[in-house]
UniProtKB/TrEMBL annotation:
UniProt cross-references to PANTHER family, sorted A to Z: PYRUVATE DEHYDROGENASE E1 COMPONENT SUBUNIT ALPHA, PYRUVATE DEHYDROGENASE E1 COMPONENT, ALPHA SUBUNIT BACTERIAL AND ORGANELLAR
Molecular function via GO: pyruvate dehydrogenase (acetyl-transferring) activity
Cofactor(s) listed in the protein's UniProt record: thiamine diphosphate
Organism: Candidatus Thermofonsia Clade 1 bacterium
InterPro entries linked to this entry: DH_E1, PDH_E1_Alpha_Subunit, THDP-binding
The Dehydrogenase E1 component domain, residue ranges: 30-151
Gene Ontology BP annotations: pyruvate decarboxylation to acetyl-CoA
Name of protein: Pyruvate dehydrogenase (Acetyl-transferring) E1 component subunit alpha
Keywords: Oxidoreductase, Pyruvate, Thiamine pyrophosphate
Length: 152
């Protein structure tokens, strides 16, 4: 059995109080939306309508929503091979994402990136990577660029 320290429990309570019920409801709605999207994507994949392979983010909705809600204006998103939820929490258009999955020109990468390579540079979403931990060197490069340009 896992036991949480009283300090950790108190920090959770403080965070919940700080966010407030409306923000928590919005975050829960985002998680439900991501789950529904992923379940539909899975159906289309099983029907053979999705090009390439697909790594769903079912069960990881809270990490995507929590991380996206902690970001600030101008931050960059680089995520892992199960990045659909992160893209959606970041504000990606589900229709463009689905178009990308299905190899359509209206997708984020004009149908060429597929499930694991959705990116939208205009919104600072630098994309996912099909290689586990493949985004780390990209993130290092982004950090170095920010440092060299002396931006936050």
């Amino acid at each position: 059995m896992i036991q949480l320290s009283q300090d950790l429990i108190q920090r959770y309570h403080d965070l919940i109080e700080t966010l407030g019920p409306e923000a928590l409801k919005m975050m829960l709605q985002e998680m439900h939306t991501i789950r529904a999207f992923e379940e539909r994507a899975e159906q289309l994949y099983m029907q053979g309508k999705v090009h390439g392979t697909m790594h769903l983010s079912i069960g990881q909705e809270a990490t995507a929503v929590g991380a996206a809600n902690a970001m600030q204006e101008g931050d960059y998103l680089l995520n892992h091979h199960r990045g659909h939820g992160h893209c959606m929490a970041w504000g990606a258009d589900p229709n463009r994402m689905m178009a990308e999955f299905m190899g359509k020109e209206t997708g984020y990468c004009r149908g060429r990136g597929g499930s694991m390579h959705i990116a939208d540079v205009e919104s600072n979403n630098l994309g996912a990577n099909g290689i586990v931990a493949g985004g780390i060197p990209i993130a290092v490069g982004v950090g170095l660029s920010i440092k060299m340009r002396r931006t936050s």
